[in-house]
Amino acid sequence: MRGTLIFAGSSCPALTGKICENLGMAPADAELSQFSNGETSVRILTSVREKDVFVVQSGSPKINDTIMELLIMISACKGGSANKITAVLPYFPYSRQSKKKSHRGAITARMLANLLGVAGVKHVITVDLHASQMQGFFKCPVDNLHAEPLIARWIRHNVPNWKEAVVVSKNAGGTKRVTSLADALKLNFGMVTTDKKRGTNMTASMIMNHLDGIDSHPYLDSISNQVRNNSSGPENGTAVAENGQVRPSRTVTDAQGSPRRANGPPARPSNPPRSHARAQAALSQSSTLSELDEEAELDGPEYNDQRAHEVTHGRLVQGHIVPDDFPSPATSAADASVAEEDPMTMSHASSFFAQPHALGGSGDAASSDEEDEILKNPKIEHMITLVGDVKNRTVLIVDDMIDKPGSWIAAAETVVKRGFARKVYCIATHAVFGADCLEQMQACDCIDAIVVTNSYPIQEDKARNASKLVVLDLSFLLAEAIRRNHYGESMSPLFLHMGD
Amino acid sequence: MSAEMANEIKLISGRSHPDLSDKIAKRLGIEVARTISLNYSNQETSFTVGESVRDEDVFVMQSTATGDVNEGLMELLIIISACRTASARRITAVIPNFPYARQDKKDKSRAPISARLVANMLQTAGANHIVTVDLHASQVRSHLRGRDGFFNIPVDNLYAEPSFLRYIRENFDPEDCVIVSPDAGGAKRATSIADHLNTAFALIHKERPRPNVVGRMVLVGSVADKVAILVDDMADTCGTLVKAAAVLKENGAKSVLALVTHGILSGKAIETLNGSVLSALVVTNTVPLGDKVERCPKIRVIDISPTIAEAIRRTHNGESVSYLFTHAPV
Predict the structure, then answer these.
(1) A135 with A160, same domain?
(2) Fewer CB within 10 Å: N-end or C-end of chain A?
(3) Residue at A326 is within a domain
(4) Domain holding A183: CATH number?
(5) Taking a contact as any Cβ pair under 8 Å apart, which residues of chain A between 112 and 141 contact chain B?
(6) In this protein, which residues make up the domain named Ribose-phosphate pyrophosphokinase N-terminal (chain B) (predicted)?
(7) Contact at 8 Å (CB) between B240 and B210?
(8) Inter-chain contact B66–A37, Cβ cutoff 8 Å?
(9) Helix (H, G, I), strand (E, B) or coil at A444
(10) Is residue A399 domain-shared with residue A485, that is, in the same domain?
(11) What is the interface pTM, i.e. ipTM, of the complex?
């Protein structure tokens, strides 16, 4: 394209190369390095005077260096009399910090938007902003592209029997994104949600046991002993189950989604020697399911929305699904009350002084990161709830980014172990993969494929070892956005789903 | 609580130089504010102020550690932004070692003026006032309060010079010293010290083909049988200082030491220093030195915290800061 220069930031030379290939041009010449004291050095080696300049920069493990490099590149181009500078940010850094999560926290994404403006950006092109309201942070125009058409196309071409698949959101905040994809593919949709259960000795299943009229206290000691003997990993669920202690999870309706009118105890006449029957069902604990508890029985007859009835619960300890009678971590951990003051956990606890769930309500997925932090806390047990029927279906778990593995693994285990899904695809636009996220997801038996785009650079050695990883190429989308921008054409076709 | 009580000094420390923050807080008789600063697994910085800053006079102390310049700068910006969002009355960024200060002019085609960018970024984040020490660039300095300068907000540039003068008076006989500037650009700084001490002055002219590369050096003036004191604003890789010291020795100096405000000491600086003819390198603690003092016995450190603390106190109380340009608080 005449009068256009595309500069690659150091985070994504490969993606920029592909974009340029799509446009039939070569990336512009710039020398990016660091001085010995760590300051970033940028040298623009070609004239930018009166040119339409695009600077492509994604995220990287050294995110702050990446941002400074971008700002200095933009500033250098502005100083070099470029006509217009567009920042192309496939992954917008700090996009999760787009609101005040605690009192006196920073809205870093807004600050970054302002910094880009100060550096001299006149236009921003980005992909799947974490919160689309962020477009309002900018004084300049923002094109927030969607990877959804690309992902939908991949699903149609690569997921066997995709018409029977269910799209699942792994948290309540992400449902909007998920319903959009479900609508595009005309698929059913489900949701997994996690509730905190902090420091209580009474687990839901124990309460339920009482409701069922069964006193489980005599078993409690033996269970915990058993579990300790088995080094108490969640994987020992089967060992516990053989002891006959596994209870089915509470399922309000049967698999077909029609309310069963059953009367508590008489509903399961086949298993009076509970322990043996349950032991056989150990691996498919809740396959016996469909026990109606009192509340459900009450509103069952009147309430006719079938999908809302397909609610499955599970217990989540240290990020994994555990059998219903797994000892509550609050009872096994010596004293949880002291732990609250523990300086080690303070930094975690304090980042939640304002409970995002309690105050937020704005319904964006900004809290998924904290959710992960909590999931890992061994002292807190969670109730994980699956809404929707996924039995024997392919499940597509969708979110905007994969950073930490916890919530993905928990959701995948829930749909497989509790919902009996056949296959699980984890799908996200931004493959941030913090720490050993990719390794953990690769190791998770419940996940069959991880589908991401190349908006965020993935380390090559990591990608090579991850056989489940599928990376979709965004370069065509970005190249087309750049081309349309340069020629002043409409962007709308890029948001449409392709026919095939 | 009375209205005056509501507006007090809140000192917030970034993670780069907590030691200096503690010293400043001690001088001011206050505690460093409680904050939580951490990096997410993807290395994005997250910051939260742990106590109210509403209507307070906030001072954010952040130096820039060698190698972590961008990390420190982003954290500073996020802290300022958080305080702005939390309704602080005024936010002063205390940046003893101003980052990117050397990239202050378009010396080549399309070279970025990063120092100006940093200045603009600080203002955009919400800083109302800047306090710094011995800013490198005369360009930045000369435009400090100008409308066309880098900053549209007040900047107090403090000087390490009074502390250096005291150090020389306490450790040497000024009669016996020659103050030497290692380059023409630093001549003003060196002559100022020489004037205050009533001593001789010399200058080394150097050719510098590229940054961090030192060319040929020529001594202007006499240092024979004197203690030669090199004066500069920053010691980075120390190539210049060490070569200058060698030139001074060749010209008959009794001993050579260097007085430098910012001891950045990056790269192989420590090895270079250890193998040099310099008898001592005196730096202030504007930059965190880490274990460098242990690794290099030649390094002496002057504590700059009294000057910064006094500047904070005077800024808060609306008193003149100019006293500090000529006097170092004890």
Answers:
(1) no
(2) C
(3) no
(4) 3.40.50.2020
(5) 114-115, 117-119
(6) 9-126
(7) no
(8) yes
(9) coil
(10) no
(11) 0.88
The fold of the B3-159+305-326 domain, in CATH, is: Rossmann fold (3.40.50)
Tens of each residue's pLDDT in chain A, 500 residues: 889 999 999 999 999 999 999 999 999 999 999 988 899 999 999 999 999 999 999 998 899 999 999 999 999 999 999 999 999 999 999 988 888 877 788 899 999 999 999 999 999 999 999 888 888 899 999 999 999 999 999 999 999 989 999 999 988 888 888 888 999 999 998 988 887 664 444 444 443 444 444 444 444 444 444 444 444 444 444 444 444 444 444 434 444 444 444 444 444 444 444 444 444 444 334 333 334 444 444 444 444 444 445 788 877 777 787 777 677 665 544 443 433 443 333 344 334 333 333 333 333 334 445 556 666 666 667 788 888 888 889 999 999 999 889 889 989 998 998 888 999 999 999 999 888 899 999 999 999 999 999 999 998 888 888 999 999 999 999 999 999 999 999 999 898 887 66
Angle between helices A108-119 and B114-125 (to 10 degrees): 140
Tell whether A500 is covered by a domain.
no
Architecture category of domain B161-302 in CATH: 3-Layer(aba) Sandwich (3.40)
Q: Between B50, B111, B236, which is nearest A43 by CB?
A: B111
Is the pTM higher than 0.90? The answer reads no
Residue A206 lies in a domain: no
- State whether A351 and B113 contact (CB < 8 Å): no
Q: How many Å apart are CA A62 and CA A67, to the nearest integer?
A: 9
Residues A179 and A233 in one domain: no
Whether B249 contacts B227, CB under 8 Å: no
Domain of A279 in residue numbering reads as 216-311
Do A96 and B103 count as a contact with CB atoms less than 8 A apart?
no
Domain count, chain A: 3
**In this structure, which amino acid lies at residue B302?**
I
Q: What size, in residues, is chain A?
A: 500
